[in-house]
# Entry
Amino acid sequence: MPAAIERFSGKQLRVLTWWTDQSPDSKKSAIICDGAVRSGKTYSMSLSFVLWAFYRFNGASFGICSKTIRSVRRNIVTPLTVQMRSLGCECRERVSENYVDIFMMGRRNRFYYFGGKDEGSASLIQGMTLSGILLDEVALMPRSFVEQALARCSVEGSRFWFNCNPDHPQHWFRQEWILGSKSKNALYIHFKMEDNPSLSEEMRKRYETLYSGAFYRRFVEGRWSAAAGAVYPFMESEKAFYDAPKGDAERYVISCDYGTVNPSSFGLWGLYGGVWYRVSEYYYDSRKEGMQRTDEEHYEGLRSLAAGREIERVIVDPSAASFIQTIRRHGEFEVVRADNRVVDGIRSVSCALSEGRVRICRCCTATRREFALYRWDESGAKDCPVKENDHAMDDIRYFVTNVLSDGGDGVFAVAAARETLIKSSTHIAPSDYYSQIA
# Structure
């Protein structure tokens, strides 16, 4: 459980106080914070959001949004309620109904949780009347959801709170809200890792090694940057690959990208000492071989890859309905549909490989070839890889997001727990700040 924050940086303090009557930003109707990961923007913004709600309202309803309900609870509600209780507030969460009631100074306000993961999410927030809304990870939400959420804030004095890491420079949110912050009457604050006093030099260096390419520019440097070049540039060296471990693994999983005209790629994964190795593969390219294979023939390839091992699950391309049914009909393996979110999955794979939690064995020659050829498509206004040489890349992504992800948010669970104990004596304490606004 995170401890209460003791100090804030200058930018964090500005976020905490922008709405107060003494602030030169008090007439703004929205705040936007973007920048590097672990820069302290999410925590300071969520705390400020709740304090503002009690400063302005009583008995009102507010919205807290992220990509999923789970990320709302993990990234915002859990650390926030710890801080609020340390300030003497009472928090009553209703998990089944996705809200928390917070009581402060004789007032009560209710904060609803919403997940904006796809176009259908907009319907979840329709009909609400809100006095303010916080949108965390706003660049990951569909525009329809964001616009519906803003439309719900019809109470006099309501304000918008936006927070995100950078994405593609042509992203609609950057174009309309960040570049247009003046016309939107919004306060825009850009964060760097240095703006989080709790982040040690050691942790900063860790994040610098965790990401590469476009993800490094976005999450470490905090820049809105287009993806370009190799998707996994650090995998172009021979040193990136490993010899297969000897002996039996602790667990086995198979991931499958299925194709008829396009190649089919299946990977056998074994867990050795906490590290998942891609120890073998099945790769069939019908164009190269001059003959297509049936579902049953691919199933025999799957069985040969398993080679009598106890396979925990087979993760399959969700579009391969007929092949999934073939596996289920035989009743030999448990089959699950893969998560097919591409960019989120690529980020998870990148982190997994960089951290050494996933390793590719040298014997997987088709996979090694694809790593050398897999490129971002630089012709569009959004991130996507070129749809070539991506079949082993896809089955690796299915494996990581199913077995190693943090539970469905598309963000790989290698980040350290949020650092919350800040020791710099040059920053204001929240107890002093709180006494100024209470």
Q: What stands out?
A: The mean pLDDT is 89. The longest strand covers residues 275-284. Residues 282 and 304 are 9 Å apart (CA to CA). DSSP finds 15 helices and 15 strands in the chain.
